Amino acid sequence: MNESKGLNDIEKNLLEDASLEDVSVPSHAELLEIVQSQLEGPNIEQLSVTDLVKLEKQFNAALTQTRSRKTQLMLESIMGLHEKERMLREEKKLLQRKVEA
């Protein structure tokens, strides 16, 4: 009786998480908590292949989102560095002109 209740709780949590996945991907902390609670909980033996596939999909979605954000931040950083380089080149030209004068 306890086992079926535990499985229903797991399925309920996964369904709630799957419905949230359509709206937004859980944060890394949330994702780690979900995975950790599912894998370390007393009901680990009750996880089905479907449950594990759902956890894997959530994890992959969060990983994809993280990689995308990382790429975005790196590109922004590169653009900032290019702008800084341009400004330093201009400053160098001005200083060279002052030295030559």
Secondary-structure map with pairings?
Layout: H1 2-23, H2 28-40, H3 49-100
Helix pairs in contact: 1-3, 2-3
List keywords for this structure.
101 residues, mainly alpha, 3 helices, 0% strand
N-to-C CA distance:
92 Å
User: Which value, in Å, is the CA radius of gyration?
Assistant: 25 Å
Helix-strand pattern, N to C?
HHH
Shape, per Cα inertia axes: rod-shaped
Main pleated sheet = none
Percentage of residues assigned to helices:
over 70%
Question: Structural class of the helices, strands and pairings?
Answer: mainly alpha
Structurally, how many domains make up the residues?
Answer: 1
Overall pLDDT score: 78
Strand content bin:
under 5%
Task: Explain what this protein looks like in three dimensions.
The chain is mostly helical and about 100 residues long. About 85% of the residues lie in helices and about 0% in strands. The relative contact order is 0.09. The N terminus is likely disordered.
What is shown here, in short?
The protein is mainly α and 101 residues long. The chain is 86% helix and 0% strand.
